[in-house]
Amino acid sequence: MPEAQRIKTKVCLVGEAAVGKTSLIRRFVQDEFDDRYITTLGAKVSKREMAFEAKDRTKIHMDMTVWDIMGEKGFRDLLKEAFFHGAKGVVAVCDLTRYSTLKELDDWVQSVFNVVGEIPVVYAVNKIDLKDEVMILYGDKEIAQAVRAFEAPYFYASAKTGENVEVLFRRLGAMVLQREGIAVAT
Question: How far apart, in whole angstroms, are the C-alpha atoms of residue 41 and residue 60?
Answer without folding.
Answer: 33
